[in-house]
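Table S4 entry, RCK N-terminal domain-containing protein.
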Amino acid sequence: MGPRLVSVSISFGGMLIFAMMLGLVSEAISEKLDSLRKGRSEVVEQNHTLILGWSDKLGSLLNQLAIANESLGGGIVVVMAERDKEEMELDIAKMEFDFRGTSVICRSGSPLILADLKKVSVSKARAIVVLADDGNADQSDARALRTVLSLTGVKEGLRGHIVVELSDLDNEVLVKLVGGQLVETVVAHDVIGRLMIQCARQPGLAQIWEDILGFENCEFYIKRWPQLDGMQFEDVLISFPDAIPCGVKVASRGGKIILNPEDSYVLQEGDEVLVIAEDDDTYAPGALPMVNGASFMHIARPARKPQKILLCGWRRDVDDMIVVLDAFLAPGSELWMFNEVVESERERKLIDGGLDLSRLVNITLVHREGNAVIRRHLESLPLESFDSAKRLPYREAMVTRGQRGSFSRGSWIGEMQQASDRSVIISEILDPRTKNLLSMSKISDYVLSNELVSMALAMVAEDRQINDVLEELFAEEGNELHIRLAELYLHEGEELSFYEIILRARLKREIIIGYRLANAERAVINPPNKNERRRWSVKDVFVVISEKE
């Protein structure tokens, strides 16, 4: 009896221990699966693009990165935000674009916690993009600054560079000071503000920027070509059948990128060529083509004239926009500011933003109070007298639809249509889907602000050197994109190759990168068959890079 009782006790004890062990193993497995599901596991990838944060720009950013990596068969993008992993994956799955082989991995965590940064292999990432938070600009930039501080504290160091999206230009210096050589900044409001100013002066420029900033068409690339050493830039210009050179990264000047250099500049050992091309593997220098010499066109550019511009709406960086407009416009110009901010408070807000009204030399501010959506407010303005009108920002709620797909005369667009034959109308829109509504109006141009900022972030993430190029093209000094009438370079019906027109433009120290025919809706950047002759019209226009006027 005794031995049997002992054996039974041992059996029950063994079963109990086995059940306990099985429970512990099951619990460990469940915890591991829960950890994987909630995004707490470590990422084993390397050479990936890491995105820290979540905003309404994420979709466009992922789309651009997917297009950029398509030629490589796809890439790896890791997104870490303070959200539930399953929610992030569900939102990304709803995005309406093709990922083209790129894999997106989501992790839940905070960029301010080093353990969470280690979890996403931050030290092995090829580039790190810090997205701005939606909401208060100062709080968003403060968080971006703390994130940069956290990134610089990673013990293993960083393999890639950091691209920081900022909301306020005033905070850029501090972020660069903290991040040092690791950091490239893209100030979203500043980029869009400057682009809207350029588009107001040159309608159609927004489409050009969409083509150049996005990876779907042609974009900037920098590469070294030893076979071009000793060649003058005027010959380099016509040496690429499938690209357009527009600058040189000069080795002897510490890698400084010179846009639109002198024709006589001779490429030295170590120099790299900045081009606009379809992809980084689609172009190479070829044999120097035979191009007829350029004959000088004695056509002077029209002198700058004072302009009258209407700015509808108010934003925190409007003071910066005023400074840029003062630099671009001719003396005697007027800037009419039409918004709901009480006139007595505007000067205080502008001064608090850093604007010195006494230093405005070219423009005079004219204040009007009202709402651009209300017809009777708009009727108080001399809309037909403005050279251009800009709306900041444009949302679906500002549009009322009339019958037969038209806009009601009481809407903002309806009112602006009445003046569209005399004025250039530029609108900022936040949602790309809204552009379908604008296509039915007579809006001269629109700026897809969120999408363009996402494009800039993706481009700088792929190649940080391009940020220097973008900064110069958007700045008040140096070179910028222009849309020029064909009559500045040719006569009506003249037969010329694109290369011949490029050489004619060089006589004015300009680089032509594309054209838009008189009967076409979109411009062609980096056209093929550059040495084939065709008949041109003076109603055509050319896209050029040249010194600011």
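The first strand starts at residue 49 and ends at 52.
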